User: What shape does this take?
Amino acid sequence: MTAQTDARPLGHNLARGIPAIIGAVFLFSFADALAKWFGQAGYDSVQIVFFRYAFGLIPVTIAIVVSGVGGLKTKRPFAHFLRGLFMFAALTLFFRGLKTLPLAEGIAVAFSAPLFVTALSWPMLGERVGPYRWAAVIIGFAGALVVLRPGTDAFKPEALFIVASAVFFALAMLHTRRISRTETNVAMYTYSTVIAGSATVPLLPFVWVAPQPVHLWLFLAVGLIGGAASYLMIVAYRNSPAAVNASFDYSALIWGALLGWIFWNEKPDVMVWVGAAIIVAAGMTITYRESRSGIKTPRRGR
Assistant: This one.
């Protein structure tokens, strides 16, 4: 994750990339489960995000030591600022929705983010979106509706927080795509952590709950796990093609279902799995088409 490494073209080292993406997806899913537990324990999502990024400064510091402070040089501070704000909004809304939504269902809806990326890439980046990708976007959103089921008794209004989170995460990914050609990974990693964490500070007095000592250790775990997962995601996308990584990225649905069952006895119904399958198929189609066009779309890095 050095500044020098950032400048090299992406290589294909599946023996390194695939274990990294598997580890990253599991760690992100476990961090999501911890965030859901904190929400149900009475902590506001803003406070959870604060601790996520505050303790996330530990792996960030390690990354800076390894790469050198030269990797922090940037010519686009405002772009980093916007990206950090989008990450703050995305994660805060996501954790808010997870508080009452089953874990697997929340993760399934969150996977609509790449659909928003494709839909917004033309107006924001001027990228051409062909008919196949537009069709995949429409089908993917239909899958999201299958999961959400608006207008029925199965609809949970809290799911709208996840949808809004997906929009903000898409905006963050588009900014990542925009600045990744000139900015190092360590710069994007560091500034998003600092800015997203700082964005919580003005809101903390309104939501602060004094954490129990044992909970501080769990908050520390969330920060370390999230930071490690972000690093592994970078390693994965530097060593494996996007289409390969995406296929493993969607395994978060399995981890979400398993963790939800273990901790909350959650059992997603058939329609959640049907909708999730549609979203995954649409997302894989978009990833395949983008890989053929040489377009890089970052995924779940936080």
Q: What stands out?
A: The chain is about 75% helix and 0% strand. Residues 12-293 form one domain.
